[in-house]
Structure formats: structure tokens, C-alpha cells
Design goal:
2 copies of one chain form a homodimer. With 243 residues, chain A is mostly helical. Chain A is 67% helix and 0% strand. Chain A has 12 helices and no strands. At the A-B interface, helix 1, helix 2, helix 8, helix 9 and helix 10 of A face helix 1, helix 8, helix 9, helix 10 and helix 11 of B. Chain A binds a DNA duplex (30 and 30 nucleotides) through helix 4.
DNA sequence: CAAAACTGTGTCCGTTGGATACAGAGTACT
DNA sequence: AGTACTCTGTATCCAACGGACACAGTTTTG
């Protein structure tokens, strides 16, 4: 009930300023010891190592040799710090590969996005729900849409394709990250096979699929598989639009 | 560092027992006042209303007229409570629609999954990362794989298709949930257009796409669009496999 | 040179998840 | 039946976390 108050819009405005506004001109007091990117990088290092649960204002402050409360001079709160970390971690969108059609560009785009999420698994949980997007995040979106201009799709369809690809990259990164926690040997073992043992009659199709997949090296190709299916579907739509 | 200790495997084992083992036989002491499903339902009600941040052991206990510590007699901790809530909220997989091919079955499956995530938005953030899956969750997966048996795809491909569809349903639910927080009028306004105002030269393709999408009623069709593209791609693969 | 503004710090508080010890209730064994 | 055992719910306590607030030091502007 208090989460939808008037404070919410004020928080949004402050966050928008934090992400979009360039640091303003000459100040009056002493020079700041820290910078926003440095704080974000410190937070990213901690979250990369110990996840979002390990991210504490205290630890960020310690890694920067300041007190916890010093951070609040730069960042309104922890939520805004995480938003800033996302923006820095995702980084600027990479240049499109030369001499590539829309399909090659989108393929590269999705794989690059997958890589970012793989490098920063905490970003998977941090990017759910409504939030204010930063310049880098919008830059990535812009690149995907730019790749689709001239294909005959209208704006809504282009946005839908971008969302579809982003979702696939996100989800695959999540699945791969989930698999590698714990001992690698127990990854899929404790994930599925151990659960299915003794209940073979309840999940016949699942058992068959897992056994069949175990013979092939299927786990590493899930990203390629989904990407091919999605882009095949988009290609079909484009070809239908341009007979 | 302490998160990958030997306690982790013990936690996993306890959670597996919590989700999979049926309540055992006759007890010795007094009758328990609560049941696991009742606790899960209470937690779900709170999380549905106020999100995962609003979910507190205190509040769950209050809504059940017990003390906070009484809950720890049933659930090892908050993480396990959330896992139980996921399992109860997702529910048993619905029966497949009669007289439907693999495509119709998967289409229905994805939409049903989308509905579940829409009803319980907190499940979006709760289902990221490595976790122990429950019987219901595996039952859903089984249904998707069962729909694909006989299509000529091998096990790994069937799993990949299921993951692809699950990811799309998840992501669309997330996007729709993110849009509807705050006032509906400001939904996409504060989400994108407000940010783009004044920076038209940086995001030309984005601006064009958003303007073009505003004329059509594109937002509601993102689920259908992605689903059609994915299933088209899968159909193409199946047809290629069976010439 | 004084005033103003900004930075970093120390201290304090509310809330949260969780551990532990204890009192009562119901069942099993003799 | 009666006793001992075991399980339940409770009360109390603690550490960690996010954040508010007032204060002291530093640098720029008049």
C-alpha cells in the first residue's frame, strides 16, 4: 500500500537523473573521493563473486576504503546502486559485425547479450520487474531495431522480435548459470536425474528425453537451437511479407 | 565462500524432502495446527499482494494466527518457503486440449504457463538461479515433452523447445507485469517515451519503432507474435526432418 | 578572510531472518 | 491406567542489514 505512494515517482526521478544526467559543473565543497562508475564497478565485483545476496553497502564501502554512509552521498539507496551496476555491467552495445544481414546482426546481438548475462549472473535477478532503463540498455535495444530496419516489419513487430531474442538470451544464460552452481559433476545429476530416480512411471517422456539428450552433447547447443528456431520463424515472416 | 560449503547440500536434501516426500505416518506429539499447503497458500496471498519484498515470516505467521517461530517447525527457512510457494502456485499441469497436434498442445501449454506467471508475478524473480524443482514443475515439463513425442525430434531438441517456450512465456509475463505497475497512463510513457524525449538523435530506430507501434495495438500481441515465430521455426525443423 | 556548501564519519534505530531454551500436549509402552 | 517420551508452539535473544541524522572537516566563492 505504501509502495505505490508519491515517494515512488520521486525515486524514479532521482534514478533517472542518476542514470542519464552527466555529472554537473563546478562544485563548492571538497573534491569527492569516489565516482559513480568506480562505485558501480566495486559493486559489480562483489556481486560477480557472491551474488546479489553478498552485495552489501558495508562490503562495497570496505572495498572502496570508505564508510558505509559515504556511499549514500552518491547513491540514494541500494536499489539505485543495483540499477547503476546493471547499466555499467551491460556496457555499451558492441558494434555490429561488418557485412552481415539482419539475421547475422541479430544472431551476434543475442550472443553478445548472452555473454553479458553469463559474466554477471546477478543481473538476471536484478532485471526483473519494472525499472528505469539506462542509456546503455536503450542503446542495445536501438541496435537490435536498427538491424531490422528495411525488412518490411513494422515497429511493433520489430520490438517484439527484440524482446523475443532478449528473452531467449536471458533465459539461456539463466539456465546455464543454474547448472554450474555446485560441483560440475552433480550439475544435471542433482538437477534432474536424481529426482527422477524411482519415479520413472510418472515422467516417461522426461526420462526418455533426458536419456536421449545425455548421449548427444545437447546442453551446450540450447542457445544455438533456440536462436535458429526464432530466426527461422522471423525469416519466414519477412519472406511472407515480401513475396 | 561459505555459500558453497557442505551446508548447501544438506539444504538441498531437506528441500527435496520438503517438496517430494509425502507426510509420513503416525506422530507422537500433539497434532500440528498447520499444514504445508496452508502455509504456502498464506505466503502466496501475501506475495501476490505485496511482492516478494512484502513476504515476511512475521506476516505469514500473523495471517495464520501463529507466532513467527512456529513456521520454522514446518519450513527450514524463508528460501524453502518460497520454493514451496512456487510449487503450489504453479499447480498441477492442466490437461492437454483434446484433438490438438503438437503445435496446438504447445501453444496452449505456453499460454497456460504465461497465465500462471501473470497471476503470481513474484514467481518471476523467485525462479531464477539454481533450485530444486518440485513435482508440479516437473509435471509441466513432462507435458511439454509428451506433446513433442512422435515428431521425430530427439530428446535434446525436445528439451530445447520446452526451454524456449518456457522462457518466452516467462519473459512476456515479466514484461507485461513490469508495464502495469504505477498508473496505467504512465506505463509506457514513463517507460520509454519520457526517456527518449530530447534525445531523438541517439535512438532513431527506437523512436521510429515506438511511434509505429503506438498506432497499432502491438503491446497485447507480443505473446502471440513470439509464440508464432517460435512454433513456425519448430515446425520448419520438424518438416525438414520428415521430408 | 569569512561564509557557504559539500564531503566523509560516527552513532543510532527499525526490521528482518534465524538460533535457542522452555512449557504444554498428546501418544506409546509397561 | 499411569508414566515417560516426543513433538508442538512460544518467548526471548542475537547478528546483520538498510537507512536517518547530526557533526566535523575541507574547499570554493564572495
Amino acid at each position: 500500500m505504501d509502495r505505490a505512494g508519491a515517494d515512488d515517482v520521486a525515486d524514479k526521478r532521482r534514478l533517472r537523473e542518476l542514470l542519464w544526467d552527466t555529472p554537473s559543473g563546478p562544485r563548492r565543497g571538497p573534491r569527492p573521493t569516489l565516482t559513480l562508475p568506480a562505485i558501480a564497478r566495486a559493486g559489480i565485483a562483489i556481486a560477480d563473486a557472491d551474488g546479489l545476496d553478498g552485495l552489501t553497502m558495508q562490503r562495497v564501502a570496505e572495498s572502496l576504503d570508505v564508510t558505509k554512509m559515504a556511499l549514500y552521498r552518491y547513491v540514494p539507496g541500494k536499489a539505485e546502486l543495483v540499477a547503476l551496476m546493471i547499466e555499467v555491467a551491460i556496457g555499451e552495445p558492441p558494434p555490429p559485425p561488418a557485412d552481415a544481414g539482419w539475421r547475422g546482426q541479430l544472431d551476434d546481438w543475442a550472443r553478445q547479450m548472452f555473454d553479458r548475462f553469463r559474466r554477471h549472473p546477478w543481473a538476471l535477478t536484478a532485471t526483473v520487474g519494472a525499472r528505469v532503463m539506462g542509456p546503455n540498455e536503450l542503446g542495445w535495444l536501438e541496435r537490435a531495431l536498427a538491424a531490422l530496419t528495411g525488412t518490411g516489419l513494422h515497429g511493433g513487430e520489430m520490438l517484439d522480435v527484440a524482446v523475443l531474442l532478449l528473452g531467449h538470451a536471458r533465459n539461456l544464460a539463466q539456465q546455464v548459470s543454474a547448472m554450474e552452481t555446485g560441483t560440475p559433476e552433480q550439475a544435471l545429476e542433482s538437477g534432474l536425474a536424481a529426482l527422477l530416480r524411482g519415479r520413472e512411471e510418472c515422467f516417461p517422456a522426461l526420462i526418455a528425453a533426458v536419456e536421449s539428450a545425455a548421449t548427444h552433447a545437447a546442453q551446450d547447443q540450447a542457445l544455438d537451437f533456440g536462436l535458429s528456431r526464432i530466426l527461422d520463424g522471423v525469416d519466414l515472416l519477412i519472406k511472407t511479407r515480401h513475396p
